[in-house]
Design a protein that fits this description.
The complex is a heterotrimer of chains A (319), B (323) and C (569). Chain A has 319 residues and is mainly α. Chain A contains 12 helices and 2 strands; from the N terminus they run αααββααααααααα. Chain A is 75% helix and 1% strand. By secondary structure, chain B is mainly alpha-helical. In chain B, 56% of the residues lie in helices and 9% in strands. Chain B is built from 11 helices and 7 strands. In chain B, helix 7 runs antiparallel to helix 8. The radius of gyration of chain B is 24 Å and the shape is elongated. Chain C is 28% helix and 18% strand. In chain C, the strands form 6 sheets. In chain C, strands 15-14-16-12-17 form a 5-stranded mixed sheet. Chain C is an alpha+beta fold. The chains are: A mainly alpha (319), B mainly alpha (323), C alpha+beta (569). Chains A and B meet through helix 1, helix 5, helix 6, helix 8 and helix 10 of A and helix 5, helix 9 and helix 11 of B.
Amino acid sequence: MARFLARRLLFACVLVLAVSSAALLLTRLAPGDVTAQLGAFAPREEVERTRARFGLDEGPLAQWGGWLARAARLDFGDSFLYNRPVGPLVLRAAGNTAMLGLTALALATLAGVPLGIFTGSRRGGTLPGLVRAVSLACLSLPPLLTSLAFVFVAARTGWLPAGGMTTPGAADAGWGAWVADVAWHMPLPALALALPVAATLERLQAQSMGEVAGEPFLLAAAARGLSRRRLVLRHAWPVAVRPVCAVYGLVIGALLSGSFIVEYVTAWPGLGRLMYEALVARDIYLVAACAATGGSLLAVGTFVGDVLLVAADPRVREV
Amino acid sequence: MRRAGWVLLALVALAAAGAPWLAPNPPDVRFDDLLYAPPTPVRVLDGGLRAPFVRPLRVVSRVERRFEEADRRVPLRWLTGGTLVTAAPDDGAPLLVLGADGYGRDIFSRLLYGARTTIGLALLATVLASLAGALVGGAAGYAGGWLDGVLSRLSELVLVLPGVYVALALRAVLPLVLPAPVIFAVLLGIFALLGWPIVARGVRAIVLAERERDYVLAARAAGAGPVRLLAVHLLPAAGGHVAAQATLLLPAFILAEATLSYVGLGFPATTPTWGTMLQDAANVALLGDAPWTLVPAVAIFVVVLGVNLAVQGSGRAPVQLDR
Amino acid sequence: MAGLLAAGLAWRGCPPDESPEPRVSVEASPIRGGQLVASIRGEPRTFNRLAAVDQTTDLLATLMQGRLVRVNRATFELEPWLAERWDSSPDGRTHTLHLRPGLEWSDGTPFTSADVLFSVRAVFDPVVGSAAASSLKVGGRAMEAAAPDDRTVVLTYAEPSGPGLRLLDMLPILPRHVLEPALEAGTLADAWDATTPPGQIVGMGPFLLREYRPGERVVLERNPRYWRTGPDGEPLPYLDRLILEIVPDQNAELLRLQSGAIDLTNSELRADDYLPVRRAEREGTLTMVELGVSPDADGFWFCLKPEVKRADPRFAFVRTREFRQAISHAVDREAFARTVFLGEAVPVWGPVTSGNRLWFSPNLPRYPHDLDRARALLAGIGLEDRDGNGVVEDAAGTEARFTVITQRGIGYYERGTRVLAEQASLVGVALDVVPLESGAMIKRLLACDYDAIYMRPLASSLDPAGNPDYWLSSGSAHLWNMEQGKPATEWEARIDALMREQARALDPLERRTLFNEVQTVLAEQLPVLYFAAPRLYYAHNSRVRGVVPSVMRPPALWSADTLSVTDAP
């Protein structure tokens, strides 16, 4: 177990390093640089100052080396767009993305798994059939479409805020009010993100429940006269949930992927939007930091997924 | 249900293939007076039954997007000018089946032509990724040893990364504005790069298992080299798996194109693709007045639904866990 | 005319009791208190007006800092601000300003002439390298400042200046007691950056910085020591709090305005957005205001740098004014206005539009839509369609085919270039439009690596003397031949001479006559072609009162101290 953990930790570090270095070098090699943001008529001295400030006057490898050395001291450079050190910026954005992702994950699990148990443990019937049809439809609604649709509905009806994370003007009403404000803005993007994932989980769970239904051990338990609920929840589900656990790592990856477009459409101030703007503006240190943070989030997510996988399928431990 | 899925996909494919014939208007013609015009109703009643006709729209207020119908009738023309049906686009009376976009272009025609680009790109990328994945997976599964180790780690790394971000980063570090054919090639490359590990993993597992089977051992004893073994015996065994994976890659690539084009890093806005058409729907405040701009979203939904229906029950993880 | 005379009075210097007081145009009894939410497009990069000159920094300086005099953005009159009156010498070089008594900085320190001296010193300091310095230089040299006592400042210009004291509208007044150490240490350019704790930023503007959350918003609260009072004698501003929400996307901004999440924006509406705003206006939630015709219009020009273009065979006919005049004749400006701006635009033929009331001249040469005349002009310089392919070429066979670069993603540019290309093709000039992202476009603009370009260069000042970079050959914004140093043609030399004279002349009528001549030369030679200027509209939430709309940005927040809301608690 410890070896497994150590391997995953090493993999995570390599991942973060590789991803952020690649992002840094790619941005450096890309055509154009951050001085384009200064506008057409910026004085030459200012352009030169900016180039020096962002290490653009040294070679790409030298810049990478310097960045690594400074990163070891936890100095990740400045952002041009925000004119401040990159660290707190990225951490705050990552926090917002994590908040969104976790909420979506919770929503998807709480909706998808029970529904899957429900439909999987019955044969036929109108309600399971309806749930299955809705699931299939939601499966085919990627986050791009759901977020567009939801923003549209919210804008027309005004039931929920049509974007953003906080209400302008709710400046300093205290911690509790902030939480309530964010909670008010959360349903739209979280639902947009969660809907397809919930449908996937539902389908998966239903499928595996259906497979388990024919197992001999279940038949034996039924013959012992156990109630339907006990059968389903205490005996069938613990087996049927394993494929779902196995897939959780992928789920987290999908949520991270989908969060980009949801953040873009609903103006949620997360990592996705930040990285996009940094890439387009060639704000090099911000790109590297976003990539590193994204990689870390991913590593944490896959680690959790792996833990669940191990819990679900002990055979994996032998690897 | 599965059949319904294949039927949907077949319809979409036919529509895309037949775009030049089905589209009433060319996709890039702008009707300057008809910005955001609503869909043109086709009528048959006008004091009695008549051949299907439309009434031309006249703009009352450009800024307020108000139109009124002129009194004259313009009958639909069938099988003329290389199209199935059209009205009189040269005369200011185009047939706008699904309305016009912000530049006065026919949405329906652009949808059809856009299907060619979007689905064509996704299809090609799927083929490329499948080929690459099959080759790499086959090599890794057959060779074993350090080659297998390296390739497996590599594919693991690519698989772990969230596809959208990698595509975004790779695309963003190129010049932000490129001509459409170049973008096509760039996106093709990026998608294939992201898609091959998915295929490779399954192929590797199958090749690994099949490698020790009798018929393979027999072929090897008969003197077949690795290439022949792979090409003739092992890879075809993985054929079913590759096909199944490929079917799942297709909608993922369609979505990726739509996402990239929507945020402005895909095709240029003048090229009709489902993603660039969605950009018009970005101004949400105006969506209520021109909901027909959301049609590409419906189209994407139809394709993805078709794929999901078609592969349903095949035991694979459904599409939403895509890259 | 009245505005001109009033401005002229201010220039000449008036006896102390006749200074026009700043006009406070508010409604009868505005409610005090409450908060207002405005949107800004860009992140504040710094709170130091000397370090950056972008719109967001400028807006924050307007809200948090004061200045000696103010140019009213609605009437264009010069108003006393921190200086309550002034005298000017007859030669227009020396100005004596008398500061208001009893003014305090937001931290309680008394405001004196030493702060003005410090500010002048800081803006021209070479170590600081402020970009604001160039618009404050007269005759290319810095002004000298002296303070005979605590309430008097004497400014001496290097030469007579037409704009005179109006230049001081661009001079930020900074606190000596806070920033002098930084100036002495040479770090003033880095002072007051985006991470500065709010309490350290001291100013004389109507608002103080309360909080800045990057990516989200800037929160400002009223400055209790603000010097200005309303008509009722009570101190301004009316608002308790002003929140600047950062919304980079114009679509999202419109959505928030519609839903009431923000009260006003800092940019005018796009023509495409009039529909939902008009609807909201009918429902009573938004108020729509016409700002006037935009003072800037989209320009189209070819790169005319001889050093780069000399080898290009097309340069032989591009450099003739007949070629450019032909294109001007070929464009139907009414159709242009209809298509590009949905009809909400007026035709223009020069860079100064009717939106710039003081400097616009209606008597410039115009080029009516006349395709025959255009073709005749082209034939006159040897361009005819000899091979019948629809594109004219010269005797050697060089086609009049050009690529036009423009910034992508901006609807007006894309529509404008499309109309331009269509109309030019009618007389045989082929224009291929290439949209680029802004960084690439700027790079090519600076290097003259383009055939033709279409964009709207924003003038920083309505007064032409405030835009020397555009008009003068040596200017850094001399669009068709950037950084050329010396005039390449006789007419450029003429414009240089006229502009210098105009900047030195004190008589406003003389300045106008000189500038009209400049505009005439430009309209005859057409280095840059202009087609239509949009009518600008602006919308704000109906709960906001006291808005004095201006055709210059920021449309409402330039007069933030007169704003009030109807539902203050």
